[in-house]
Design brief:
The protein has 562 residues and is an alpha+beta fold. The protein folds into 5 domains: 6-144, Tyrosine recombinase, N-terminal domain (DNA polymerase, domain 1, Orthogonal Bundle); 166-238, no CATH class; 245-369, no CATH class; 372-419, no CATH class; 425-553, no CATH class. It has helices at 36-50, 55-74, 87-96, 102-122, 153-182, 188-203, 211-214, 222-227, 230-238, 245-256, 260-264, 306-316, 348-362, 371-384, 387-394, 399-403, 413-419, 437-443, 493-516, 519-525, 527-537, 543-553, and strands spanning 6-9, 13-17, 23-28, 271-273, 280-287, 292-299, 335-336, 343-344, 425-427, 449-450, 456-457, 486-489. Strands 9-12-11-10 form a 4-stranded mixed beta sheet, with no helix packed on it. It has a 3-stranded antiparallel beta sheet with strand order 1-2-3, covered by helices on one side. A 3-stranded antiparallel beta sheet has the order 4-5-6. The chain is globular, with a radius of gyration of 29 Å. It starts with 5 loop residues before the first strand and ends in a 9-residue tail after the last helix. The relative contact order is 0.06.
Length: 562
């Protein structure tokens, strides 16, 4: 879960404070020339519009708003109590003259529009009542859009192989350090190292001390430590260090296709059992930007699967939880600081520094953390030819969003509609009215069967769901809504009655899930089906059929979903 942040307002500045009382960021307008009225209104707007989002997002909002503040200061408007009705048009012209990229200009303008619209509704004394918000949109051209790298499969395997080697070396090192402290059957050399190691921990009250702590009268450890590798060696035997986190992080990031900032904030309890299959497990985490749960499944028996790599890390850094601040004790990617005795999740800059060293030492081509999400989308699409596979891997709600991550195909609006949610066939009864008679001949054979939510299936043994092997009976009974083998006869009253019965069952289950606390399970198993029925099927059913089907729907038994 995302840690709670408290907002404390003081002197034209909002402090973002975590549970331990530490100020993690400032939304600060105290060093500007804004009037008290304008500063108060802008801060309230940021809190209302973005207070639910991450600290990083709120700081980014302030960064964009500061361009508007700069414009107001240069235009002599910052000291005013209320802004004129044409201020957005003037700002638009000013912004277009800057050397910022078009994408940045658009983001800034949209942010300022959102802030002023909120103020117009809720803090109206700082904007003109007849404020004109209809400013020209800043257009984007191809040159202004930055393109992420799509790394090829060979490179992906190369990076993962290097990470696996480094993880094995880290695991051997930490387990060796624990053996020095716990075992008595040590070699003569290891007994010497064990004596020094235990002595250091006594001086440091359970931690490896600093150099000043052992360079004191009466403590004869300095020479021994220097002759056996120095304090850094003993710190690395004691705990996972900041530079150790990178290979674990890269493996989870690459395999999960998650957002870089969200993955590094993953909790220690992120590994979950699959609700239906004993051979699978999930990684669950929150996408920080939108605070929405993300989920990817993995086979349990793969030694280097992301959940198993995360397990290794959690076991290796378990001694650091008590050394972290309360807001980070539940985090998976904890490491001991290089100087301080506090455990923490590595900062963004620390990770980038470690990545630069990793690339240099391994003689790899340059890449960035954000490249892996695009790479996942591209590789999954190339393998399957189905953008839905990429969409599910990236946990996108819209296939249109996913298409932006894929460079190998441009999607038209027609393709979006064809790919969105329901990939099966919507048809009429086979009375010669169908545009594809061969289709009806195919689905009218013994292969066609009914499914639990009212969908018909061309052939449950065909492997059309993309998961089940051809020849085996499909068990993906909650995925019919996205399967190309699904068929809905729109003018068959009995078919639509079963669809309406399923809709009622799903809506009741959703209400129960919200009340009883299993909403995440409902989203994972049933939400797609309900959305497909409401958005992609029922709008195309003739009203006369719906009326007759409603009466008939009550005769069909409803499922108990949990």
């Amino acid at each position: 879960m995302i840690s709670s942040i408290i907002r404390v307002s003081e002197n034209r500045c909002d402090l973002l404070v975590d549970k331990s009382g530490r100020t993690v960021a400032k939304i600060d307008l105290s060093n500007t020339l804004l009037s008290s009225n304008l500063a108060t209104g802008f801060l309230r707007a940021i809190a209302a519009l973005h207070g639910h989002s991450t600290v990083k997002s709120q700081v980014a909002t302030l960064y964009r708003l500061r361009y508007f503040v700069s414009f107001l200061e240069k235009s002599g408007l910052s000291s005013r109590e209320s802004l004129p009705n044409d201020v957005m048009h003037e700002f638009h012209r000013w912004l277009c003259k800057t050397h910022l990229m078009n994408t940045t200009q658009r983001a800034i303008q949209n942010e300022v529009l959102a802030v002023l619209r909120w103020c117009h509704r809720n803090f109206s004394r700082i904007v003109a009542l007849d404020m004109d918000f209809k400013v020209p949109e800043i257009s984007l051209n191809k040159d202004s859009i930055s393109h992420r790298k799509r790394l090829d499969e060979i490179f992906v395997k190369q990076v993962l192989a290097i990470c696996y080697q480094k993880i094995e070396a880290i695991e051997i090192r930490i387990l060796y350090g624990r053996a020095l402290l716990e075992r008595s059957d040590l070699s003569e050399e290891d007994q010497k190292i064990s004596y020094i190691f235990k002595s250091l921990l006594r001086v440091g009250s359970g931690l490896v001390p600093q150099i000043d702590d052992i360079n004191r009268p009466g403590i004869k450890l300095l020479g021994l430590v220097r002759n056996t590798g120095g304090l850094k060696r003993y710190r690395k035997l004691f705990a996972i260090c900041l530079e150790d986190i990178l290979p674990f992080y890269l493996v989870v990031l690459i395999q999960s296709a998650g957002n870089a900032a969200s993955i590094i904030s993953m909790d220690r309890d992120s590994i979950r059992q699959h609700p239906l299959r004993d051979d699978l497990e999930f990684l669950d985490w929150n996408k920080l930007k939108v605070r929405r749960e993300q989920r990817v499944d993995f086979p349990k028996d793969k030694h280097w699967s992301a959940p198993n790599v995360l397990r290794k890390l959690i076991q290796l850094n378990e001694n650091l939880c008590s050394l972290a601040e309360s807001s980070e004790q539940s985090k998976a990617f904890l490491a001991l600081g290089s100087i301080s005795q506090v455990a923490a999740v590595p900062s963004r800059q620390t990770l980038h520094n470690a990545l630069a060293d990793f690339i240099s030492e391994s003689h790899l081509s340059d890449f960035d953390f954000a490249d892996w999400r695009h790479t996942n989308a591209e590789l999954h699409f190339k393998k399957t030819g189905n953008v839905k596979v990429s969409q599910q891997r990236l946990n996108h709600q819209s296939v249109k969003t996913t298409s932006r991550y894929i460079s190998s195909k441009e999607f038209s609006e027609t393709e979006y509609r064809a790919l969105h949610w329901f990939q099966g066939s919507l048809e009429k009864k086979a009375r010669g009215t169908s545009p594809d008679k061969e289709l009806h001949k195919e689905i009218s054979g013994k292969g066609r069967q009914e499914t639990v939510f009212g969908f018909s299936c061309r052939d449950p043994f065909s492997g059309l769901d993309g998961i089940t092997e051809s020849g085996q009976r499909c068990l993906s009974f909650t995925k019919c809504c996205t399967c190309p083998g699904a068929v809905i006869t729109l003018d068959d009253v009995h078919v639509i009655a079963r669809i309406l019965s399923a809709k009622t069952t799903l809506e009741k289950a959703k209400n129960s899930a919200d009340i009883e606390g299993w909403g995440a399970r409902f989203q994972a198993l049933y939400a797609d089906t309900l959305l497909t029925i409401n958005n992609s099927i029922l709008p195309f059913v003739p009203e006369s059929v719906v009326v007759k089907a409603r009466d008939l729907a009550m005769r069909y038994p409803t499922l108990e979903l949990e």
